[in-house]
Design brief:
globular, 22 helices, mainly alpha, 3 strands
Amino acid sequence: LSSTASNGLMELDFSQQIHYVWALLPEIVLCVWGMIVLIAGVSGKHQDADDGAAGDPSFGPKSDLGWLTLLGILLAAGANGWLYGVNEVGDSSMIAVDGFRLFANWIFLLAAALTVLISFVYIYRLRLQAGEFYALILFATAGMMFMAGARDLIVIFLGLEVMSIAVYALAAFNRRDRKSAEAGLKYFLLGAFSTGFFLYGIALVYGATGSTNIAAINTSVASMAASPGLLVVAIALLAIGFGFKVSAVPFHMWTPDVYEGAPTQVTAWMSAAVKAAAFVAFFRVFLVGFDAAYDTWFPIMWWLAAITMVTANLIALVQTNVKRMLAYSSIAHAGYLLVALTAANENAAAGMLFYLLIYTLMNIGAFAVVMSVAHQAEERLYIDDYAGFGWAQPGIGLFLTIFLLSLAGFPGTGGFMGKIYLLQGAADSELWVLSVILVLSTVASYWYYLRVAWVMWMKEPTSKDQHSLVVVPLPMCLALIVCVGLIIYTGIFPGAAIDFARSSVQGLGSLGG
Protein backbone atom coordinates (compact mmCIF):
# COMPACT_ATOMS: atom_id res chain seq x y z
CA LEU A 1 0.00 0.00 0.00
CA SER A 2 1.06 3.56 -0.53
CA SER A 3 -0.44 6.76 0.83
CA THR A 4 -0.72 10.07 -1.00
CA ALA A 5 0.24 12.91 1.34
CA SER A 6 -0.69 16.56 0.84
CA ASN A 7 2.95 17.56 0.28
CA GLY A 8 3.60 14.93 -2.38
CA LEU A 9 3.61 11.19 -2.97
CA MET A 10 5.14 9.28 -0.08
CA GLU A 11 5.67 5.53 -0.20
CA LEU A 12 5.06 3.82 3.14
CA ASP A 13 6.93 0.51 3.32
CA PHE A 14 5.50 -1.47 6.18
CA SER A 15 5.53 -5.17 6.97
CA GLN A 16 2.74 -7.26 5.44
CA GLN A 17 0.92 -7.29 8.77
CA ILE A 18 0.94 -3.51 9.02
CA HIS A 19 -0.33 -3.28 5.46
CA TYR A 20 -3.39 -5.30 6.39
CA VAL A 21 -3.96 -3.16 9.50
CA TRP A 22 -4.29 -0.10 7.27
CA ALA A 23 -6.37 -1.98 4.69
CA LEU A 24 -8.77 -3.17 7.41
CA LEU A 25 -8.89 0.09 9.37
CA PRO A 26 -12.69 0.65 9.07
CA GLU A 27 -13.37 -2.93 10.18
CA ILE A 28 -10.94 -2.62 13.09
CA VAL A 29 -12.61 0.61 14.22
CA LEU A 30 -16.04 -1.04 14.19
CA CYS A 31 -14.87 -4.12 16.08
CA VAL A 32 -13.07 -2.12 18.76
CA TRP A 33 -15.98 0.30 19.09
CA GLY A 34 -18.41 -2.62 19.33
CA MET A 35 -16.49 -3.90 22.37
CA ILE A 36 -16.55 -0.41 23.88
CA VAL A 37 -20.33 -0.18 23.44
CA LEU A 38 -20.76 -3.68 24.86
CA ILE A 39 -18.73 -2.82 27.97
CA ALA A 40 -20.55 0.51 28.36
CA GLY A 41 -23.86 -1.33 28.15
CA VAL A 42 -23.16 -3.38 31.27
CA SER A 43 -21.96 -0.41 33.30
CA GLY A 44 -23.92 0.57 36.38
CA LYS A 45 -25.17 3.77 34.76
CA HIS A 46 -27.04 1.91 32.04
CA GLN A 47 -27.99 -1.16 34.03
CA ASP A 48 -29.68 0.93 36.71
CA ALA A 49 -31.48 3.28 34.31
CA ASP A 50 -35.23 3.33 34.81
CA ASP A 51 -36.84 2.09 31.59
CA GLY A 52 -40.10 3.65 32.56
CA ALA A 53 -38.76 7.09 33.31
CA ALA A 54 -40.55 10.09 31.94
CA GLY A 55 -39.11 12.25 29.22
CA ASP A 56 -37.85 11.79 25.72
CA PRO A 57 -36.26 8.32 25.43
CA SER A 58 -34.04 9.65 22.66
CA PHE A 59 -32.02 11.51 25.30
CA GLY A 60 -31.10 9.75 28.52
CA PRO A 61 -29.01 6.92 29.98
CA LYS A 62 -30.42 4.28 27.63
CA SER A 63 -30.04 6.45 24.53
CA ASP A 64 -26.41 7.35 25.30
CA LEU A 65 -25.36 4.01 23.86
CA GLY A 66 -27.15 4.81 20.60
CA TRP A 67 -25.32 8.11 20.22
CA LEU A 68 -22.06 6.39 21.19
CA THR A 69 -22.68 3.82 18.44
CA LEU A 70 -23.28 6.57 15.91
CA LEU A 71 -19.94 8.10 16.88
CA GLY A 72 -18.24 4.79 16.16
CA ILE A 73 -19.94 4.56 12.77
CA LEU A 74 -18.77 8.10 12.03
CA LEU A 75 -15.18 7.17 12.91
CA ALA A 76 -15.39 4.10 10.66
CA ALA A 77 -16.71 6.33 7.87
CA GLY A 78 -13.70 8.60 8.35
CA ALA A 79 -11.39 5.60 8.09
CA ASN A 80 -13.19 4.47 4.95
CA GLY A 81 -12.73 7.92 3.43
CA TRP A 82 -9.05 7.86 4.34
CA LEU A 83 -8.62 4.65 2.32
CA TYR A 84 -9.33 6.63 -0.86
CA GLY A 85 -5.86 8.12 -0.42
CA VAL A 86 -4.27 4.68 -0.18
CA ASN A 87 -3.04 2.99 -3.36
CA GLU A 88 -2.96 -0.77 -3.54
CA VAL A 89 0.12 -2.51 -4.92
CA GLY A 90 -1.00 -5.45 -7.08
CA ASP A 91 -4.40 -7.13 -7.17
CA SER A 92 -3.77 -10.54 -5.61
CA SER A 93 -3.87 -9.72 -1.90
CA MET A 94 -6.53 -11.22 0.36
CA ILE A 95 -8.05 -7.78 1.06
CA ALA A 96 -8.93 -5.35 -1.73
CA VAL A 97 -8.58 -1.60 -1.40
CA ASP A 98 -10.59 -0.61 -4.45
CA GLY A 99 -13.52 1.61 -5.26
CA PHE A 100 -15.94 -1.30 -5.36
CA ARG A 101 -15.23 -2.21 -1.75
CA LEU A 102 -15.21 1.39 -0.52
CA PHE A 103 -18.54 2.25 -2.20
CA ALA A 104 -20.09 -0.85 -0.64
CA ASN A 105 -18.73 0.21 2.76
CA TRP A 106 -20.62 3.51 2.47
CA ILE A 107 -23.84 1.53 1.96
CA PHE A 108 -23.19 -0.64 5.03
CA LEU A 109 -22.30 2.34 7.22
CA LEU A 110 -25.33 4.30 6.04
CA ALA A 111 -27.62 1.34 6.75
CA ALA A 112 -26.12 0.89 10.22
CA ALA A 113 -26.48 4.60 11.06
CA LEU A 114 -30.09 4.72 9.88
CA THR A 115 -30.93 1.56 11.82
CA VAL A 116 -29.50 3.01 15.02
CA LEU A 117 -31.44 6.24 14.51
CA ILE A 118 -34.78 4.48 14.12
CA SER A 119 -34.18 2.14 17.08
CA PHE A 120 -34.08 4.48 20.08
CA VAL A 121 -37.72 4.38 21.16
CA TYR A 122 -38.28 0.74 20.15
CA ILE A 123 -35.46 -0.46 22.42
CA TYR A 124 -36.63 1.86 25.21
CA ARG A 125 -40.25 0.77 25.06
CA LEU A 126 -39.62 -2.99 24.84
CA ARG A 127 -36.84 -2.83 27.46
CA LEU A 128 -34.23 -4.51 25.28
CA GLN A 129 -30.53 -4.60 26.11
CA ALA A 130 -29.28 -1.54 24.22
CA GLY A 131 -25.57 -2.30 24.60
CA GLU A 132 -25.91 -5.79 23.16
CA PHE A 133 -28.14 -4.60 20.33
CA TYR A 134 -25.87 -1.79 19.15
CA ALA A 135 -22.72 -3.89 19.55
CA LEU A 136 -24.21 -6.63 17.37
CA ILE A 137 -25.03 -4.03 14.71
CA LEU A 138 -21.40 -2.90 14.69
CA PHE A 139 -20.00 -6.44 14.59
CA ALA A 140 -22.34 -7.47 11.79
CA THR A 141 -21.41 -4.35 9.81
CA ALA A 142 -17.73 -5.27 10.19
CA GLY A 143 -18.55 -8.73 8.84
CA MET A 144 -20.23 -7.16 5.83
CA MET A 145 -17.13 -5.08 5.17
CA PHE A 146 -14.95 -8.19 5.34
CA MET A 147 -17.19 -9.78 2.70
CA ALA A 148 -17.07 -6.72 0.45
CA GLY A 149 -13.29 -6.37 0.59
CA ALA A 150 -12.28 -10.03 0.46
CA ARG A 151 -10.32 -11.35 -2.49
CA ASP A 152 -10.19 -14.84 -1.05
CA LEU A 153 -13.10 -17.25 -0.63
CA ILE A 154 -11.97 -18.17 2.89
CA VAL A 155 -12.04 -14.51 3.96
CA ILE A 156 -15.50 -14.14 2.40
CA PHE A 157 -16.60 -17.15 4.43
CA LEU A 158 -15.17 -15.64 7.64
CA GLY A 159 -16.92 -12.34 6.95
CA LEU A 160 -20.13 -14.20 6.21
CA GLU A 161 -19.95 -15.98 9.57
CA VAL A 162 -19.14 -12.80 11.51
CA MET A 163 -22.15 -11.14 9.92
CA SER A 164 -24.50 -14.12 10.17
CA ILE A 165 -23.90 -14.97 13.82
CA ALA A 166 -24.66 -11.38 14.82
CA VAL A 167 -27.77 -11.29 12.62
CA TYR A 168 -29.05 -14.60 14.07
CA ALA A 169 -28.94 -13.03 17.52
CA LEU A 170 -30.55 -9.80 16.31
CA ALA A 171 -33.44 -11.64 14.66
CA ALA A 172 -34.25 -13.30 18.01
CA PHE A 173 -33.37 -10.24 20.07
CA ASN A 174 -36.85 -9.59 21.47
CA ARG A 175 -36.83 -12.59 23.79
CA ARG A 176 -40.29 -11.82 25.17
CA ASP A 177 -41.81 -12.31 21.70
CA ARG A 178 -42.29 -15.90 20.52
CA LYS A 179 -42.29 -14.77 16.88
CA SER A 180 -38.88 -13.19 17.32
CA ALA A 181 -37.49 -16.39 18.84
CA GLU A 182 -39.01 -18.37 15.98
CA ALA A 183 -37.49 -15.99 13.44
CA GLY A 184 -34.04 -16.34 14.98
CA LEU A 185 -34.28 -20.14 15.05
CA LYS A 186 -35.49 -20.41 11.45
CA TYR A 187 -32.82 -18.03 10.23
CA PHE A 188 -30.13 -19.91 12.14
CA LEU A 189 -31.14 -23.35 10.83
CA LEU A 190 -31.56 -22.33 7.20
CA GLY A 191 -28.56 -20.02 7.36
CA ALA A 192 -26.39 -22.87 8.60
CA PHE A 193 -27.82 -25.09 5.86
CA SER A 194 -26.95 -22.55 3.15
CA THR A 195 -23.50 -22.01 4.65
CA GLY A 196 -22.86 -25.72 4.15
CA PHE A 197 -23.48 -25.34 0.42
CA PHE A 198 -21.19 -22.32 0.30
CA LEU A 199 -18.37 -24.01 2.20
CA TYR A 200 -18.58 -27.17 0.12
CA GLY A 201 -18.50 -25.00 -3.00
CA ILE A 202 -15.29 -23.36 -1.73
CA ALA A 203 -13.76 -26.80 -1.21
CA LEU A 204 -14.62 -27.85 -4.76
CA VAL A 205 -13.25 -24.59 -6.16
CA TYR A 206 -9.97 -25.35 -4.42
CA GLY A 207 -10.06 -28.85 -5.83
CA ALA A 208 -10.72 -27.54 -9.33
CA THR A 209 -8.25 -24.64 -9.40
CA GLY A 210 -5.79 -25.29 -6.57
CA SER A 211 -6.51 -21.95 -4.89
CA THR A 212 -9.14 -19.99 -2.99
CA ASN A 213 -7.73 -16.62 -4.11
CA ILE A 214 -10.17 -15.01 -6.54
CA ALA A 215 -7.43 -13.66 -8.84
CA ALA A 216 -5.71 -17.07 -8.95
CA ILE A 217 -9.07 -18.73 -9.64
CA ASN A 218 -9.60 -16.36 -12.57
CA THR A 219 -6.17 -17.22 -13.97
CA SER A 220 -6.78 -20.94 -13.63
CA VAL A 221 -10.22 -20.80 -15.26
CA ALA A 222 -9.07 -18.50 -18.07
CA SER A 223 -6.11 -20.76 -18.90
CA MET A 224 -8.40 -23.81 -18.89
CA ALA A 225 -6.22 -25.41 -16.21
CA ALA A 226 -9.21 -25.89 -13.88
CA SER A 227 -10.99 -29.23 -13.74
CA PRO A 228 -14.22 -28.57 -15.68
CA GLY A 229 -16.34 -31.15 -13.87
CA LEU A 230 -15.48 -29.92 -10.39
CA LEU A 231 -15.74 -26.31 -11.50
CA VAL A 232 -19.34 -26.63 -12.71
CA VAL A 233 -20.46 -28.25 -9.46
CA ALA A 234 -18.53 -25.66 -7.42
CA ILE A 235 -20.17 -22.77 -9.27
CA ALA A 236 -23.60 -24.31 -8.70
CA LEU A 237 -22.99 -24.76 -4.96
CA LEU A 238 -21.67 -21.21 -4.55
CA ALA A 239 -24.69 -19.91 -6.45
CA ILE A 240 -26.97 -21.79 -4.04
CA GLY A 241 -25.12 -20.39 -1.01
CA PHE A 242 -25.31 -16.84 -2.29
CA GLY A 243 -28.91 -17.43 -3.44
CA PHE A 244 -29.97 -18.11 0.17
CA LYS A 245 -28.30 -14.93 1.40
CA VAL A 246 -29.85 -12.67 -1.25
CA SER A 247 -33.27 -14.38 -0.92
CA ALA A 248 -33.50 -15.54 -4.52
CA VAL A 249 -36.32 -17.92 -5.44
CA PRO A 250 -36.38 -20.89 -4.72
CA PHE A 251 -34.03 -20.21 -1.79
CA HIS A 252 -36.30 -17.56 -0.28
CA MET A 253 -38.45 -19.69 2.01
CA TRP A 254 -36.95 -18.26 5.20
CA THR A 255 -37.42 -14.62 4.27
CA PRO A 256 -41.14 -13.90 4.93
CA ASP A 257 -41.24 -15.65 8.32
CA VAL A 258 -37.95 -14.17 9.53
CA TYR A 259 -38.79 -10.67 8.34
CA GLU A 260 -42.21 -10.85 9.99
CA GLY A 261 -40.97 -12.21 13.31
CA ALA A 262 -37.77 -10.22 13.80
CA PRO A 263 -37.89 -6.77 15.46
CA THR A 264 -38.91 -4.29 12.77
CA GLN A 265 -35.70 -2.27 12.79
CA VAL A 266 -33.73 -5.52 12.47
CA THR A 267 -35.93 -6.52 9.54
CA ALA A 268 -35.22 -3.16 7.89
CA TRP A 269 -31.50 -3.58 8.40
CA MET A 270 -31.43 -7.20 7.23
CA SER A 271 -33.42 -6.45 4.09
CA ALA A 272 -30.98 -3.69 3.10
CA ALA A 273 -27.51 -4.26 4.55
CA VAL A 274 -27.36 -8.07 4.62
CA LYS A 275 -28.65 -8.22 1.06
CA ALA A 276 -26.14 -5.59 -0.06
CA ALA A 277 -23.21 -7.47 1.51
CA ALA A 278 -24.25 -10.73 -0.12
CA PHE A 279 -24.64 -9.11 -3.55
CA VAL A 280 -21.28 -7.31 -3.36
CA ALA A 281 -19.49 -10.58 -2.55
CA PHE A 282 -21.62 -12.38 -5.17
CA PHE A 283 -20.50 -9.90 -7.84
CA ARG A 284 -16.81 -10.04 -6.93
CA VAL A 285 -16.67 -13.84 -6.93
CA PHE A 286 -18.58 -14.39 -10.17
CA LEU A 287 -17.49 -11.35 -12.20
CA VAL A 288 -13.82 -11.68 -11.26
CA GLY A 289 -13.14 -15.25 -10.21
CA PHE A 290 -15.47 -16.95 -12.69
CA ASP A 291 -15.41 -14.35 -15.44
CA ALA A 292 -13.94 -16.83 -17.94
CA ALA A 293 -16.68 -19.33 -17.05
CA TYR A 294 -19.48 -16.86 -17.88
CA ASP A 295 -21.13 -19.26 -20.31
CA THR A 296 -21.36 -21.83 -17.51
CA TRP A 297 -23.10 -19.69 -14.90
CA PHE A 298 -25.07 -17.40 -17.24
CA PRO A 299 -28.12 -19.73 -17.55
CA ILE A 300 -28.19 -20.24 -13.77
CA MET A 301 -28.35 -16.50 -13.10
CA TRP A 302 -30.78 -15.89 -15.95
CA TRP A 303 -33.33 -18.29 -14.55
CA LEU A 304 -32.76 -17.21 -10.95
CA ALA A 305 -33.43 -13.60 -11.93
CA ALA A 306 -36.53 -14.39 -13.99
CA ILE A 307 -38.13 -16.75 -11.47
CA THR A 308 -37.36 -14.46 -8.53
CA MET A 309 -38.90 -11.37 -10.15
CA VAL A 310 -42.08 -13.12 -11.27
CA THR A 311 -42.72 -15.31 -8.20
CA ALA A 312 -42.03 -12.68 -5.54
CA ASN A 313 -44.20 -10.01 -7.15
CA LEU A 314 -47.11 -12.40 -7.67
CA ILE A 315 -47.05 -13.59 -4.05
CA ALA A 316 -46.71 -10.03 -2.76
CA LEU A 317 -50.00 -9.11 -4.47
CA VAL A 318 -52.05 -11.13 -1.97
CA GLN A 319 -50.25 -10.19 1.27
CA THR A 320 -52.20 -8.40 4.00
CA ASN A 321 -49.38 -8.07 6.54
CA VAL A 322 -47.14 -5.09 5.77
CA LYS A 323 -43.92 -6.75 6.93
CA ARG A 324 -44.61 -9.88 4.85
CA MET A 325 -45.48 -7.71 1.86
CA LEU A 326 -42.18 -5.85 2.20
CA ALA A 327 -40.42 -9.20 2.61
CA TYR A 328 -41.68 -10.40 -0.77
CA SER A 329 -40.87 -6.95 -2.13
CA SER A 330 -37.29 -7.49 -0.94
CA ILE A 331 -37.19 -10.83 -2.77
CA ALA A 332 -38.44 -9.15 -5.94
CA HIS A 333 -35.71 -6.50 -5.70
CA ALA A 334 -33.16 -9.31 -5.37
CA GLY A 335 -34.46 -10.49 -8.75
CA TYR A 336 -33.88 -7.06 -10.24
CA LEU A 337 -30.29 -7.06 -8.94
CA LEU A 338 -29.72 -10.55 -10.32
CA VAL A 339 -30.42 -9.07 -13.75
CA ALA A 340 -27.34 -6.88 -13.25
CA LEU A 341 -25.26 -9.91 -12.27
CA THR A 342 -26.49 -11.79 -15.35
CA ALA A 343 -25.58 -8.83 -17.58
CA ALA A 344 -22.02 -8.80 -16.16
CA ASN A 345 -20.85 -5.51 -17.64
CA GLU A 346 -19.63 -2.22 -16.25
CA ASN A 347 -22.96 -0.39 -16.55
CA ALA A 348 -24.74 -3.26 -14.82
CA ALA A 349 -22.21 -3.36 -11.96
CA ALA A 350 -22.48 0.42 -11.48
CA GLY A 351 -26.27 0.17 -11.64
CA MET A 352 -26.14 -2.53 -8.97
CA LEU A 353 -24.18 -0.30 -6.58
CA PHE A 354 -26.48 2.66 -7.26
CA TYR A 355 -29.57 0.49 -6.77
CA LEU A 356 -28.28 -0.97 -3.48
CA LEU A 357 -27.73 2.56 -2.18
CA ILE A 358 -31.23 3.71 -3.11
CA TYR A 359 -32.81 0.47 -1.92
CA THR A 360 -31.18 0.93 1.49
CA LEU A 361 -32.70 4.40 1.81
CA MET A 362 -36.22 3.55 0.69
CA ASN A 363 -36.50 0.22 2.51
CA ILE A 364 -35.20 1.40 5.89
CA GLY A 365 -37.37 4.51 5.53
CA ALA A 366 -40.48 2.43 4.83
CA PHE A 367 -39.84 0.15 7.80
CA ALA A 368 -39.27 3.20 10.02
CA VAL A 369 -42.80 4.39 9.24
CA VAL A 370 -44.09 0.85 9.86
CA MET A 371 -42.51 1.06 13.33
CA SER A 372 -44.29 4.35 13.98
CA VAL A 373 -47.69 3.00 12.94
CA ALA A 374 -47.01 -0.04 15.14
CA HIS A 375 -46.49 2.29 18.13
CA GLN A 376 -42.78 1.35 18.32
CA ALA A 377 -43.71 -2.28 18.96
CA GLU A 378 -44.91 -5.33 17.05
CA GLU A 379 -48.59 -4.48 16.63
CA ARG A 380 -50.88 -2.95 14.00
CA LEU A 381 -48.95 -4.58 11.15
CA TYR A 382 -51.81 -5.12 8.71
CA ILE A 383 -52.56 -2.93 5.72
CA ASP A 384 -56.04 -2.07 7.06
CA ASP A 385 -54.38 -0.55 10.13
CA TYR A 386 -53.12 2.23 7.83
CA ALA A 387 -56.65 3.48 7.09
CA GLY A 388 -56.70 7.26 7.46
CA PHE A 389 -53.06 7.41 8.54
CA GLY A 390 -52.19 9.91 5.81
CA TRP A 391 -54.64 12.52 7.10
CA ALA A 392 -53.96 11.83 10.78
CA GLN A 393 -50.17 12.12 10.29
CA PRO A 394 -49.74 13.98 6.97
CA GLY A 395 -45.96 14.45 7.21
CA ILE A 396 -45.14 10.82 7.92
CA GLY A 397 -47.87 9.70 5.52
CA LEU A 398 -46.23 11.73 2.75
CA PHE A 399 -42.84 10.19 3.55
CA LEU A 400 -44.27 6.65 3.37
CA THR A 401 -45.92 7.48 0.06
CA ILE A 402 -42.57 8.61 -1.36
CA PHE A 403 -40.89 5.42 -0.14
CA LEU A 404 -43.61 3.27 -1.71
CA LEU A 405 -43.42 5.15 -5.01
CA SER A 406 -39.65 4.76 -5.07
CA LEU A 407 -39.88 1.05 -4.32
CA ALA A 408 -42.34 0.75 -7.18
CA GLY A 409 -40.02 2.68 -9.49
CA PHE A 410 -42.13 5.79 -10.02
CA PRO A 411 -40.50 8.53 -12.17
CA GLY A 412 -38.86 11.30 -10.17
CA THR A 413 -37.58 8.97 -7.45
CA GLY A 414 -34.25 7.26 -6.94
CA GLY A 415 -35.92 3.87 -7.32
CA PHE A 416 -36.95 4.75 -10.88
CA MET A 417 -33.43 5.78 -11.85
CA GLY A 418 -32.04 2.63 -10.26
CA LYS A 419 -34.24 0.46 -12.47
CA ILE A 420 -33.27 2.54 -15.50
CA TYR A 421 -29.58 1.84 -14.88
CA LEU A 422 -30.26 -1.86 -14.36
CA LEU A 423 -32.12 -1.91 -17.68
CA GLN A 424 -29.23 -0.11 -19.38
CA GLY A 425 -26.86 -2.79 -18.15
CA ALA A 426 -29.21 -5.52 -19.37
CA ALA A 427 -29.53 -3.80 -22.75
CA ASP A 428 -25.74 -3.61 -23.12
CA SER A 429 -25.65 -7.42 -22.85
CA GLU A 430 -28.77 -7.78 -25.04
CA LEU A 431 -30.84 -9.42 -22.31
CA TRP A 432 -34.09 -8.35 -23.91
CA VAL A 433 -36.31 -11.03 -22.39
CA LEU A 434 -35.04 -10.35 -18.87
CA SER A 435 -35.55 -6.63 -19.47
CA VAL A 436 -39.17 -7.21 -20.45
CA ILE A 437 -39.72 -9.40 -17.39
CA LEU A 438 -38.21 -6.69 -15.18
CA VAL A 439 -40.49 -4.02 -16.62
CA LEU A 440 -43.65 -6.16 -16.43
CA SER A 441 -42.93 -7.32 -12.88
CA THR A 442 -42.30 -3.70 -11.88
CA VAL A 443 -45.70 -2.73 -13.30
CA ALA A 444 -47.31 -5.58 -11.32
CA SER A 445 -45.63 -4.34 -8.13
CA TYR A 446 -47.48 -1.02 -8.42
CA TRP A 447 -50.59 -2.79 -7.19
CA TYR A 448 -49.35 -3.82 -3.76
CA TYR A 449 -47.30 -0.68 -3.15
CA LEU A 450 -50.05 1.74 -4.15
CA ARG A 451 -52.67 -0.31 -2.30
CA VAL A 452 -51.01 0.77 0.97
CA ALA A 453 -50.97 4.40 -0.17
CA TRP A 454 -54.64 4.18 -1.22
CA VAL A 455 -55.67 2.76 2.16
CA MET A 456 -53.62 5.43 3.91
CA TRP A 457 -55.15 8.39 2.08
CA MET A 458 -58.53 7.21 0.80
CA LYS A 459 -59.93 4.92 3.48
CA GLU A 460 -61.62 6.12 6.66
CA PRO A 461 -60.05 5.02 9.97
CA THR A 462 -62.08 2.69 12.18
CA SER A 463 -61.81 5.10 15.13
CA LYS A 464 -60.89 8.74 15.61
CA ASP A 465 -57.95 7.99 17.91
CA GLN A 466 -56.60 5.14 15.77
CA HIS A 467 -53.34 6.96 15.04
CA SER A 468 -53.12 9.16 18.11
CA LEU A 469 -50.33 7.10 19.70
CA VAL A 470 -47.98 7.30 16.71
CA VAL A 471 -44.51 8.21 17.99
CA VAL A 472 -41.89 9.73 15.71
CA PRO A 473 -38.88 10.67 17.89
CA LEU A 474 -36.25 13.16 16.80
CA PRO A 475 -33.61 10.58 15.70
CA MET A 476 -36.19 8.79 13.55
CA CYS A 477 -37.28 12.11 12.04
CA LEU A 478 -33.67 12.78 11.13
CA ALA A 479 -33.37 9.36 9.47
CA LEU A 480 -36.61 9.86 7.52
CA ILE A 481 -35.56 13.31 6.29
CA VAL A 482 -32.19 11.95 5.11
CA CYS A 483 -33.86 9.05 3.30
CA VAL A 484 -36.52 11.14 1.60
CA GLY A 485 -34.08 13.89 0.66
CA LEU A 486 -31.59 11.53 -0.97
CA ILE A 487 -34.32 9.56 -2.76
CA ILE A 488 -35.75 12.71 -4.33
CA TYR A 489 -32.31 14.17 -5.08
CA THR A 490 -31.08 11.00 -6.82
CA GLY A 491 -34.36 10.76 -8.67
CA ILE A 492 -33.93 14.25 -10.15
CA PHE A 493 -30.12 14.58 -10.20
CA PRO A 494 -28.69 11.04 -10.33
CA GLY A 495 -25.55 12.01 -12.26
CA ALA A 496 -23.12 12.40 -9.35
CA ALA A 497 -24.15 9.13 -7.68
CA ILE A 498 -24.05 7.01 -10.83
CA ASP A 499 -20.72 8.54 -11.90
CA PHE A 500 -19.33 7.70 -8.47
CA ALA A 501 -20.64 4.15 -8.87
CA ARG A 502 -19.11 3.83 -12.36
CA SER A 503 -15.72 4.99 -11.15
CA SER A 504 -15.97 2.47 -8.28
CA VAL A 505 -16.37 -0.56 -10.56
CA GLN A 506 -13.47 0.24 -12.87
CA GLY A 507 -10.84 -2.45 -12.67
CA LEU A 508 -13.20 -4.94 -10.96
CA GLY A 509 -12.70 -7.41 -13.80
CA SER A 510 -13.16 -7.59 -17.52
CA LEU A 511 -16.92 -7.11 -17.06
CA GLY A 512 -17.33 -8.19 -20.61
CA GLY A 513 -20.64 -9.98 -20.20
